[in-house]
């Protein structure tokens, strides 16, 4: 077993080393990425002036929507987006946010966010001048984006829910499986030149393998030693923190796009505008979720997994190899999480804390749908994704995630077992 652990550690170290790039900053800088509905915006002028009004530099965004301006020292700066250079059909989401005051600290590279939206959909908190037609067009667009986000959350939530259902473990390191899947695909696609589709398949295989190895040599050993679920949950938090900072050290703090399907022109389908990759990604996500769900219902392994989730002791007494079933669940959960990471990276680029940033929404989807139920995770995740996007009709974009967690609290007050969960008697 010791050799296997060493081999696993060496493999993980080799993977992150291949991803390696200097994670430390070579000085202070301002940078950002301009995107409209997930697509990079090229050729937009960004200018930076110091607090005393002296100009620092002016740059234009590249083909991937990124820009960067080194600054001479730490301090306050004004960053201005030249709205006349925005492409036709694109505008600032909030017209009064064309100039931002930004504080840069010593040794810090500060990200600056300019929120963009299709022309006619921007505003400042009220929609009194918005026509009924444009309002419903926006509802349709946000509904589509909500389904897109919800399916990505559902992919991650299904693996988390299956692991919880069969082992009772609340795995806070699950988000790092998403990050690792995205980074593995980036390694093969952007670094080694493998087409993204094949890179994604390799990343899913790596995710499944790591899921198996995790349970075979780590979580399974903890179960054999009789570790409590609370102790294992705390260990998962420590593992998540460790992996996150390993990613930061080797991958760096900046966001990076895949080499393929990065700057696709949008297509119009009725009131919905999106890149072709979004439609294809949603089809893949839905197909995978349906396949995994049917496998749970129709296959012997799926029925065994449901038996283990209901009563592990009874399942073992009836001849089911509980450890083998749990190992399969970890393998499937790791593979599906890696696929979710690839899809998330395709939608918003790759960074070291992407899994952590979506983990709270994954837990919300799992809890809302019903802990330990795969289809509940799907339903709960779709509700979370839709609510997050549609809530921007009435609240600022910065508060949309808070709204999703609020609806989770409200549902739990009236239906503690979740949408598809079952009531359990205690005692």
From TrEMBL:
Keyword Membrane applies: yes
Coiled coil: none
Organism: Planotetraspora phitsanulokensis
Name of this protein: Branched-chain amino acid ABC transporter permease
Regions crossing the membrane: 149-173, 185-210, 230-251, 279-297, 328-346, 358-388, 394-414
Subcellular location: Cell membrane
CDD domains: TM_PBP1_LivH_like (cd06582)
Highest taxon, organism lineage: Bacteria
Gene Ontology process terms (BP): carbohydrate metabolic process; D-alanine transmembrane transport; L-alanine transport; L-isoleucine import across plasma membrane
Organism lineage string: Bacteria, Bacillati, Actinomycetota, Actinomycetes, Streptosporangiales
InterPro entries per UniProt: ABC_transp_permease, BCAA_transport_permease, Ig-like_fold
MF terms in GO: L-isoleucine transmembrane transporter activity; L-leucine transmembrane transporter activity; L-phenylalanine transmembrane transporter activity; L-valine transmembrane transporter activity
PANTHER family (UniProt xref): BRANCHED-CHAIN AMINO ACID TRANSPORT SYSTEM PERMEASE PROTEIN LIVH (PTHR11795), HIGH-AFFINITY BRANCHED-CHAIN AMINO ACID TRANSPORT SYSTEM PERMEASE PROTEIN LIVH (PTHR11795:SF371)
Keywords noted in UniProt: Amino-acid transport, Cell inner membrane, Cell membrane, Membrane, Signal, Transmembrane, Transmembrane helix, Transport
